[in-house]
Amino acid sequence: MKAGRNASLNHPPNNNARIQERARYWFTVMRSDTRSERDEAEHKIWLNANLAHRRAYREVEELWGLLGGFGEGPEVREARRLAKQYTTPAVYHLEPAVTAEAVQQGQAVEAVPGNPRPFTRRWMPMAMAASIMFVLLGSGALFNQPLDWLQQSPVYQTALGENKTYVLEDGSTIVLDTQTRLSIDFSAATRRIVLESGQARFDVAHDKSRPFVVEAGSGRITALGTAFIVKKADKNTSGSEILVTLLEGKVAVAQEKAPDPATALLQESTASHPAEDKFAPAPTVTLEAGQQVAYSPSGISAKAEVDLEQATAWQEGRLVFEDHSLAEVLADLNRYSSTKILLGNSKLDDIRITGVFKTGDNKKVVQTLTTYFNIRATNDNYGNLILTPAG
Asked: Is 157 left (phi over 0), alpha (psi -120 to 50) or beta?
């Protein structure tokens, strides 16, 4: 059984560009004196269907407020005049395909392509939409900054102890571990993922024309039709920054960011330290199934063979350790629980752990540790479990 983990299948968030388009459409409709009761009902349905809809609509309102009197300038009036010609099917898709029954029942349904309603007396809303778009196209000169809110990438994330699965638009699947956050940026040329924190598994749909790239830390992982896991170490955790494990196929792991001067100086002064020696100055490493590599600003490690069952155990709510230090074990387990286990004495650092632990139940972990080792546990004022030598 999985403890404290809610596995769910989710589809990608609504396309941001389409949401922004709908927000601008509804903004113009609601400001028009020709709007009907049906318009108001459909606008309410769309607005309440998704938090992203409300956010996008608010952004359009804020932008219009910033434009002020410019919205009535001669250029915009000309855009309105031209918008009178917008009576072709090219603009009909902006009409929401919501049934009258859905409006009456107040159902929160998303607008989908359908047969357009007659475009009677709709030129004014479309003129206002054209006006807004005209201003947006010239807003670089107006605001001297890009309109990033029109280009936001979808973001996927999980909370403490949560595990989620997402199916992307290309058919690829992403499994997010606890406290993981990443963003998606798909284009006609590439499929780009940015892993900001946590750990994720990627099962990539094959597409030769669009490489699948995961950017994490100081490097990137490129794959075509494969499955792999990328883990970004906690900032407070020593050792490698990014760990890449290949489950199927092949991936290329490349370090793209050179060490800064401070890092280079640290490398030089600690060159004889075993923990630093494993990093070799290799720009790219190609992995085969069952191999693992780590990288940080210091470089890329040598390839190592791994137990894939152990590497994927987190998807089943388990963590498997083989001859790990107690500090490493606790750092990993603490990612899944609000009850943290802390070492209260450096003498415990030398304890080596081999075993399987269920995630999200740190009290059970402490019970196991105090049973098999000469350790006692106490609580601090913050609810943490503090481990110290017994006797």
From this structure: beta
pLDDT in tens, 303-355: 999 999 999 999 999 999 989 999 999 999 999 999 999 999 988 988 999 99
Task: Quickly list H helices, the chain.
Answer: 16-30, 37-49, 51-67, 74-83, 100-105, 123-137, 139-143, 261-269, 274-277, 308-311, 326-333, 362-372
Domain boundary among the residues 150, 175, 203 is at 150
Quote the CA–CA distance of 52 and 239 in Å, as a whole number. 39
- Is 5 inside any structural domain? no
Q: How far apart are CA 166 and CA 68, in angstroms?
A: 41
Q: Range of 30's domain?
A: 14-150
Which residue type does 187 have? Answer: S
The verdict on 144 and 267 lying in the same domain is no
Q: Model confidence at 3, in pLDDT bands (50, 70, 90)?
A: very low
Q: How confident is the model at residue 33 (pLDDT cuts 50, 70, 90)?
A: low
The yes-or-no verdict on residue 121 having pLDDT over 80 is no
Q: How far apart are CA 93 and CA 108, in angstroms?
A: 19
Q: In 3-state terms, the chain is what percent helix, strand and coil (to 5)?
A: 35, 25, 35
Report the alpha-carbon distance of residue 353 to residue 312 in Å, rounded: 19
Q: Are residues 161 and 143 in the same domain?
A: no
Task: Answer yes or no: is pLDDT of 65 > 50.
Answer: yes
**Pairing mode, if any, of strands 352-358 and 375-379?**
unpaired
CA torsion, points 85, 88, 92, 94, in degrees to nearest 10? -40
User: What are the two backbone dihedrals, phi and then psi, of residue 296, each rounded to the nearest 5 degrees?
Assistant: -150, 180
pTM for the structure as a whole: 0.58
